[in-house]
Amino acid sequence: MRVILGFGVALALTACDVPVPDSGVGFDNGNFKPRISDEPLGATATSLPPAESVSSETLDVLAATAPVPSQPTGGESAFVEASPSNPAPVRVENSGISDENDFAAVDARRSIEDDAQRRQQIAAQYQQVEATDLPERDGGAGPNIVEYAVLSKNPVGNRIYRRIGLNAANRFARNCRAYPSSDQAQIDFLSRGGPERDPRGLDPDGDGYACAWDPTPFQKLGG
Q: Is residue 186 assigned to a domain?
């Protein structure tokens, strides 16, 4: 009795067994087998119905909406299919690139005689300019402290000019503060009759240099 019941249960389970759908890859006895397809990569899975089963209006709509391959414009380069059977691309137009550094290209259109003639033509265009003397200074720009420093041989602080005046120290400090620099003070000192005369008291020690102006840097530049 138990054997009969067991055999009946086995038959019931076999009838209820649901087949496993194909996953799209393919299996055979547990071994993996990749699917081989003749369909090229990137192609869509949707296929069009036969032409005889489609009306002419539908075919016109499909033809009008079909993608059109883009064509290269005038400023773009044409696409080149990478294939060993295709020859290497060759640049046809290169007028914008100079070939002056290409000896073979230059040698094909020039000769030694041509180069010699070109050098003569370039030499004929040279213009020789005769040297002239520098223009004389008109003296309208005021005293030249550089020239004064180079020509002066008196050391700083050595009295060679006579100075007379009361309260010389205070006058010196007050008047020198009115100048932005000692160079400006020396220019004004020379324009007012210095170094022999010192109406503003800018050179109380009589060395010929106003407001502690130092001619040494200019003397070194002058040699």
A: yes
